[in-house]
Amino acid sequence: MKKLESIEDKLIPAVFSGILILTWYFTVESGYIKEFTLPSPIGVIKALFDILPDLRVHIAVTLQEALAGFFISIALSIILAILMDNIEIARKAVYPLLIVSQTVPIIALAPLFVMWFGFGIIPKIIVVILVCFFPIVVSLLEGLSSVDRDLLNLMKSMGASRLQIFKMVKFPASMISFFSGLRIAATYSIMGAVIGEWLGGRAGLGLYMLRVKNSYAYDKMFATILIIVVLSMTVFKTISLIQYLSMPWFREMKEE
Amino acid sequence: MNTYLNNSYKLKINNIKKTFEDLLVVDDVSIYLKENEFVSLLGPSGSGKSTIFNIIAGLLKPDEGEITIDGEDFTGKTGRVSYMYQKDLLLPWKKVIDNVALPLAIKGVKKQEARERVKKYFKIFGLEGFEYKYPFQLSGGMRQRAALMRTYMFSRDIILLDEPFGGLDAMTKRNMQYWLLEVTENLKASILFITHDIEEAIFLSDRIYILSNRPAKVKEEIKINLPKPRKSEIITSIKFNEIKKQVINTL
């Protein structure tokens, strides 16, 4: 029964996507929409194979920016979440700012970063950090503060120090929530890097997309988007895999 | 009371008082627990029994009064006795053996050595073969036994139990009571037990303190002169019911 359901879970989205792609294909083939405004799915696939050799460099650059930003975000988030969890004043002071930071349109700020930090890798990493940081810090903070008070009292009654309580109870207890934040941030990281490049740079998928867009090569642009989707999904799946491997108890709990 | 007697008290609570924001919760409670004794605090829910436990465990400081363990002052000091709740509070990410060894880990014992030290107790606690399972793979009764085992690993001489079987179904609860009586025979521990279940208190205890509704005050101390080891038949005996009547009247 369970197996059947999981096949169904995979089949339904696959069929639905297939229908969408077919609709796209026939609309373009029939000439209802001109090929130069919207390339056909087959055109996109063809373009993908054409540009793939050239794209390798750009993919490497984008991945590098995204991962650098992602890891810096993780480090910053852990530090900040721990501070906010332990010091009430820090939480009160920083939390509203965190939320406000998410309402600022990054697309408007990014050109400023280019002006301040040049066309190199740094402004891109900053954009990635700005988009990744928030989901990680919030999920970790939520995880840390959701621990059962009675459990904390029990640890205290057994003479555990604050550091021990953190290491043995609070941090492991926040892992599930932490990983869900990480998964969201991981997909954002690629997108963040692309936005950063779009607004000025020397290499990267965003820059490449800007170039092909300006030369009206939409098939190549769509092919690049496809690559961005694949990259994002790969990072997402990698995080899920790390969670699967690092939390054996959670894995077995889900399997039961 | 002479000094000789005073020394045989495992745990002594002298005239403790506790208020929370003008609300008097514990009012001049004095309780003692002797070596190998099983004593219950019986009273209505929300009567401040758990506050008394928090004070004994050192998590709360009483406004007045003191806690002595083996004649030594432990008022407001944690790390001497631990207690067990209705909730098992096992860590879901640790295997049962590591959960049980948690108090040792806190004391700085290395993982392998801690495991070695707790291993031999799995048989006594009826958890043999479940050492390397995760808590969610155990039944409710087994989880409570694991929680009790963890409490025992922390302090072997004094164990505080706060309605430990409150969350179990009636059948499991009964079985756990028989099991607890049996296991405490072997453990040589002094046990202080919180409950609002009259039969449970009489069946398990050597003595019962009946507490009043908030603020908690000792209304009466009742000695349970039922022979030990106790069997299930005892619940229907005349003596048992006489005690029960006395307890109900006091409550």
Provide keyphrases for this structure:
heterodimer; A: 256 residues; mainly alpha; MetI-like fold; B: 251 residues; alpha/beta; Rossmann fold; 4-stranded antiparallel sheet; globular
Question: What do you see in this structure?
Answer:
The complex is a heterodimer of chains A (256) and B (251). Chain A is mainly α and 256 residues long. Chain A has one domain: MetI-like fold (Orthogonal Bundle). Chain A has helices at 2-29, 41-86, 88-103, 106-117, 122-145, 149-157, 162-173, 175-198, 205-214, 218-246, 248-255. Chain A starts with a helix and ends with a helix. The mean pLDDT of chain A is 89. In chain B, α9 crosses α10 (238-250). Chain B is α/β, with parallel strands linked by helices and 251 residues long. Chain B has helices at residues 3-7, 49-57, 96-100, 102-106, 111-119, 121-124, 140-154, 170-187, 198-204, 238-250, and strands at 9-20, 23-34, 38-42, 64-69, 72-73, 83-84, 158-162, 190-195, 207-211, 218-223. Classes of the chains: A mainly alpha (256), B alpha/beta (251). Chains A and B meet through α6, α7 and α11 of A and α4 of B.
Précis, in short:
Chain A is an all-alpha fold and 256 residues long. Chain A has helices at residues 2-29, 41-86, 88-103, 106-117, 122-145, 149-157, 162-173, 175-198, 205-214, 218-246, 248-255. Classes of the chains: A mainly alpha (256), B alpha/beta (251).
- State which percent range the strand residues of chain A make up: under 5%
| Tally of alpha and pi helices of chain A | 11
Based on helices, strands and strand pairing, what is the structural class of chain A? mainly alpha
Question: Structurally, how many domains make up the residues of chain B?
Answer: 2
Oligomer: heterodimer
